[in-house]
Automatic annotation (TrEMBL):
Keyword presence, Amino-acid biosynthesis: no
Residues annotated for N(1)-(5-phospho-beta-D-ribosyl)glycinamide binding in this entry: 12-14
Organism: Halopseudomonas yangmingensis
UniProt keywords, alphabetically: Purine biosynthesis, Transferase
Pathway: Purine metabolism; IMP biosynthesis via de novo pathway; N(2)-formyl-N(1)-(5-phospho-D-ribosyl)glycinamide from N(1)-(5-phospho-D-ribosyl)glycinamide (10-formyl THF route): step 1/1
Protein name, entry field: Phosphoribosylglycinamide formyltransferase
GO terms, molecular function: phosphoribosylglycinamide formyltransferase activity
Taxonomic superkingdom: Bacteria
Gene3D superfamilies: Formyl transferase, N-terminal domain
NCBIfam families in alphabetical order: PurN
SUPFAM superfamilies according to UniProt: Formyltransferase
Reaction(s) catalysed by this chain's protein: N(1)-(5-phospho-beta-D-ribosyl)glycinamide + (6R)-10-formyltetrahydrofolate = N(2)-formyl-N(1)-(5-phospho-beta-D-ribosyl)glycinamide + (6S)-5,6,7,8-tetrahydrofolate + H(+)
EC number(s) recorded for this UniProt protein: 2.1.2.2
Function of the protein: Catalyzes the transfer of a formyl group from 10-formyltetrahydrofolate to 5-phospho-ribosyl-glycinamide (GAR), producing 5-phospho-ribosyl-N-formylglycinamide (FGAR) and tetrahydrofolate.
Amino acid sequence: SCRIAVLISGSGSNLQALIDQLPGDHCQLVAVLSNRAEALGLQRAAEAGIATRVLDHREFASREDYDQALVAAIDAFQVDLVVLAGFMRILTPAFVRHYHGRLLNIHPSLLPLYKGLHTHRRALQAGDREHGASVHFVSEELDGGPVILQARVAVLADDDEQRLAQRVLQQEHSIYPLAVRWFAEGRLRINNLGRACLDGEPIPPGGI
Ligand code: GAR
């Protein structure tokens, strides 16, 4: 069974979706790590009986030092997969390389659109009629790794940032558990060309 660590910084609603939806026979959530001690997701983890660790980035001299400590904390759990679920820190190339092919992220936009922050605001400002979320393998380029799965959400005439974000988040809660399950079942990988593959078939650039 696939041993999984989840990294969070905040509410952890995606973590909750994983707790609720991952099939126990293939997936074992063995650790939740946060850079913020106040993250609500730590309580969700504790309630589900999952080990938690807090590594406060403010206690480290550099990004490299922090990520090195993070790798050590994660690897102590001997995981097969690292899942970023609202972990709001940019990771160093060394961290990303260490988990090459076994590091997933969810980003609240239809990548390659709106990498970085304030994705919902930017989609509204651009007048987009469609917005959404993407699950992708993490590469050294910020929010630039191969996309696995996307969910599309219609932008409504009277949307504001909060309402749109809420509907996108709801979709995140379906696509992230699905992609993680695929990985745990051994169906998902990065091939030697850096493409994401499902059941050996390259996934198109826009995801499934
Ligand atoms: C989610 O919308 C996730 O896509 C986003 O943060 C939120 C976390 O919510 N992630 C990023 O913006 C990563 N750059 P959650 O803590 O309730 O899962």
